[in-house]
TrEMBL record:
The protein's name: UvrABC system protein C
Family of this protein: Belongs to the UvrC family.
Assembly and binders: Interacts with UvrB in an incision complex.
Pfam families: GIY-YIG, HHH_5, UVR, UvrC_RNaseH, UvrC_RNaseH_dom
Protein function: The UvrABC repair system catalyzes the recognition and processing of DNA lesions. UvrC both incises the 5' and 3' sides of the lesion. The N-terminal half is responsible for the 3' incision and the C-terminal half is responsible for the 5' incision.
Cellular localisation: Cytoplasm
Residue runs in coiled coils: 211-247
InterPro entries per record: GIY-YIG_endonuc, GIY-YIG_endonuc_sf, GIY-YIG_UvrC_Cho, Hlx-hairpin-Hlx_DNA-bd_motif, RuvA_2-like, UVR_dom, UVR_dom_sf, UvrABC_protein_C
Domain UVR: 208-243
Region Disordered: start-end pairs: 482-503, 664-695
Major location category of this protein: cytoplasm
Residue span(s) of domain UvrC family homology region profile: 259-529
């Protein structure tokens, strides 16, 4: 590591004017490029006490061996030169957006004698009109296939076109009416170019005028009794409307805008861009970057603008660019965008209305992109091993916790209290091992808590005790009969496997139990384990507010570095437990709302329940019906009718069954599933705005 003072220039050598600077390492490689309104003031920031620098900035200045600069006349020139040098040198300490693919565009080659419609990627060419980018090439081809009926523009390659000209026979599209066949002179070059212009205008969003013109032509043809022509125009209009439906209108007044959103954490940032043309989302793209330097959201937006428009000109830069935060200063960037477009560009943060709502959608996409990227990152074996080692070191464990179980409590204002248990083995989720718990009350006590009497700490104690009591029961070969989760009793038999050889549900203990919460939840979990005599399982809690790691008996938390892979793994485990608990809680609440006394009638399926309700009109009328009247429903015999009448006559449901030996409520944990029971994705910590806040 170099000492920055060894290459620090004296303040008098640095000009107090706009410019661009480069840091180089000992091998003369450029490792960082930056711009400044005042080179003297900016560079002075890098040569202060190392302890006061951001960790990434400190790493950069100690890696560098020299610094040099270039003076320019304006901040806009500095912005342009900075972008050029970043593209040329690819410095390791600059923000670099890694685009995971080359996004396809719909292109119309107006620079050819016979313009061609095609999918194009890569650098843009002069004289070609581009629309997009699109997320998938097939989305372009679907749209083009619909539009070729109305705008039969050439789509064939140069080789196919030349061969058709030589033989005098058009390709298949020419025969089926999806190409005007300029290759065999069915249309002149001038008329074909006009057709390509109409296609481009339609794709640019000028659709209303063209459709109205076709509708008038259809009406005129019908009045003149040219019904075949009118029918053809009708089908053309339907094809155009179907193509328009593929890009739903999201903004009124035919707005042309790009919306840029950023999702970030301490280590990485994801950028998502929606391209809106003519009020419709015409394309979407995104990048993920490592934050190898100390940057703000405004800085990330500035780098995204450079990446997006650095090689774009003219129509590719829209009139309006909406961002989550403005670069500082914003003037040079806005002037640079105006120069790229050749006309004024509005760079602003949306404050209200449809544009703000659409920006929230783009932000959700950015967040999902970051989550997906982190999930892929978590699959790396080396990274997972390092994360487990860091956790073991931070918690003073004897070995890396290869099996981690995490627990979370979820309820809605005290109702439908549930808990989740998720399992990570070797740093990866084991969804087949997930478990869900209904919280009933204090373990070993017949009293059942509901509503206000219930809280997260006592619920955490209960769920930990229930899980590990089952573990101890399955571990000991006592020959006792044990109540299984499905309600069937059986002999304990082998300690770790069922008769078919599969492992028992609670046979394997974790090396680490993680709870969602701070000191109170950690203390409750530790107390539950101590009461069961279990002292070889570590416990910790992860508090959401500051992502602090709490351990039993300590007044101060363990603070892992923000860049720690161990902290990242604990966050993933905690968030997954939270997601799984909320999903189950929502499912239970929905079932409670839909519950019916008929659900408890044995042998009564959904079809016969519907038949009963259809026959009587309501549950109230069914309850007041006699057994003979119930027997009148097709498929309902007398014995079933008596069972139905008895079930409906019950005023209150039966009390929960209690084991008289232990005082434990017999209804046990429900096995987890590999998919979300509700069938809908739920973000960790997502609020339910219908009835308050879920926890």
């Amino acid at each position: 590591m170099a000492d920055p003072s060894s290459y620090r220039p004296s303040p008098g050598q640095i000009p107090d004017s706009p410019g661009v600077y480069k840091f180089r390492d000992e091998h003369r490689r450029v490792i960082y490029v930056g711009k400044a309104k005042s080179l003297r003031q900016r560079l002075a920031n890098y040569f202060q006490d190392l302890a006061g620098l951001h960790p990434r900035t400190r790493s950069m200045v100690t890696t560098a061996a020299s610094v040099e600069w270039t003076v320019v006349s304006t901040e806009v020139e500095a912005l342009q030169l900075e972008y050029s040098w970043i593209k040329e040198f690819d410095p390791r300490f600059n923000v670099k957006y890694r685009d995971d693919k080359s996004y396809p565009y719909l292109a119309v080659t107006m620079n050819e004698q016979y313009p061609r419609v095609q999918v194009m990627r890569g650098h843009k060419k002069k004289g070609v009109r581009y629309f997009g980018p699109y997320a998938h090439a097939w989305a372009i081809r679907d749209t083009v296939d619909l539009l070729l009926r109305v705008f039969p523009v050439r789509t064939c390659s140069a080789g196919v076109f030349k061969n058709a000209t030589r033989t005098g026979r058009p390709c298949l599209l020419g025969y089926i009416g999806k190409c005007s066949a300029p290759c065999v002179d069915r249309i002149s070059a001038e008329d074909h170019r006009e057709l390509a212009d109409e296609f481009s205008d339609f794709m640019a969003g000028r659709t209303g005028t063209y459709i109205r013109r076709l509708e008038k032509q259809m009406t005129d043809a019908a009045e003149e009794m040219e019904y075949e022509r009118a029918a053809r125009l009708r089908d053309d209009i339907e094809a155009l409307k179907k193509a328009m439906e593929k890009n739903a209108v999201v903004l009124a007044d035919a707005t042309d805008a790009d919306l840029i959103a950023v999702a970030e954490d301490e280590l990485e940032a994801a950028v998502q861009i929606f391209h809106v043309r003519g009020g419709r989302v015409r394309g979407q793209r995104g990048w993920v970057t490592d934050k190898v330097e100390a940057v703000t959201t405004g800085d990330l937006v500035e780098h995204a603008l450079q990446q997006l428009y650095g090689e774009e000109t003219g129509d590719s830069v829209p009139k309006e660019v909406l961002v989550p935060a403005l670069p500082d200063p914003v003037g040079p960037v806005q002037e640079w965008l105006t120069g790229r477009r050749g006309a004024g560009v509005s760079l602003r943060i949306p404050q209200r209305g449809d544009k703000k709502a659409l920006m929230e959608t783009v932000a959700r996409n950015a967040q999902q992109s970051l989550v997906l990227h982190k999930t892929k990152r978590a699959s790396d074996l080396t990274t997972r091993s390092r994360a487990l080692e860091e956790i073991a070191e931070a918690l003073d464990l004897d070995s890396a916790p290869l099996r981690i179980e995490c627990y979370d409590i979820s309820h809605l204002q005290g109702d439908d209290v549930v808990a989740s248990m998720v399992v990570f083995e070797d740093g990866l989720a084991r969804k087949s091992e997930y478990r869900r718990f209904q919280i009933k009350g204090r373990v070993g006590d017949t009293q059942v808590w509901h509503g206000e009497g219930q809280d997260d700490v006592r619920s955490m104690h209960e769920v930990i005790a229930r899980r590990f009591r089952r573990y101890l029961a399955e571990k000991e070969k006592t020959g006792e009969w044990v109540e299984e989760e499905d309600g069937n009793a059986g002999h304990e038999g082998n300690a770790f496997t069922e008769e078919d050889g599969r492992p028992k549900r609670f046979a394997y203990p974790p090396q680490l139990v993680v709870v969602d919460g701070g000191q109170p939840q950690v203390a409750a979990a530790r107390r539950a384990l101590d009461e069961l005599g279990i002292d070889d399982i570590a416990v910790c809690g992860l508090a959401k507010r500051l992502e602090e790691v709490w351990v039993p008996g300590e007044d101060d938390p363990v603070v892992l570095p923000r860049t720690s892979e161990g902290l990242y793994l604990l966050q993933r485990v905690r968030d997954e437990a939270h997601r799984f608990a909320i999903t189950y809680q929502r499912t239970k609440r929905a079932k409670r709302f839909r519950a019916s006394p008929l659900d408890d009638v044995p042998g009564l399926g959904e079809a016969r329940k519907q038949a009963l309700l259809k026959h009587f009109g309501s549950l109230k009328k069914l309850r007041s019906a006699t057994i003979e009247q119930i027997c009148e429903v097709p498929g309902i015999g007398r014995k079933t009718a008596e069972t139905i009448a008895a079930a409906l006559a019950q005023v209150a449901p039966a009390a929960p069954a209690v084991n008289t030996a232990t005082g434990e409520i017999m209804e046990e944990e429900e096995p987890g599933t590999t998919a979300d029971p509700s069938g809908e994705p739920v973000a960790a910590g997502a609020p339910d705005r219908r009835r308050g806040q879920e926890t």
